[in-house]
């Protein structure tokens, strides 16, 4: 058993792209696609899902989706390519617009509460006969993917890192927690993009991921919570050091 779900096979898009609620279809669809770009789930040079698939994921008409993609193109975020291997591609060097006035301490506090809670819940579910086998298989596969991701350029590593954390939030069984975490993770990635790449910091982060995974796989809820708290604290220290 590979441990990979449909969401992992599609690069984690299923964790972010969900049917929009009525009334604001265009605005909410645009928000979700921009979040995909901020999270790096579709990297520069890669192709967005086909129009029909993307419209179905978002629960909007193809006409509405074309409006969304048109905005992305106008803002310089995507390019169109024709032909057999054509489609809509994320433009190299493009960056989705950032949230104005991101409050560093607010983001860090929100992240720690969600992440430590998610780690604890996942450790408890890992010990559960019903949910445990699939969760443990997924976590082992995700950690292996992160271990094999190159540290430079950082985009490849950060993508796998993001998928690991999004997956933990999702596997708590709480859709609300998963949605909240996707939002806060996008803000964290925005902040990380503002500081220098520190390979030593990434190596330390990966060691923490390994310790966290061991605690979850062992069903150690208290240990998982503490390992995640340490992990969040390390990232917070770097961000405060460069941005405060």
TrEMBL record:
Q: Which residues form the signal peptide?
A: none
Coiled-coil positions are none
Q: Report the superkingdom from the record.
A: Bacteria
| Domain HTH gntR-type, chain residue ranges per copy | 23-93
Could you tell me the keywords of this UniProt record?
Answer: DNA-binding, Transcription, Transcription regulation
**Pfam hit, one:** GntR
Q: Which CDD domains match?
A: WHTH_GntR
Q: What is this protein called?
A: FCD domain-containing protein
The lineage, from the top, is: Bacteria, Bacillati, Actinomycetota, Actinomycetes, Kitasatosporales
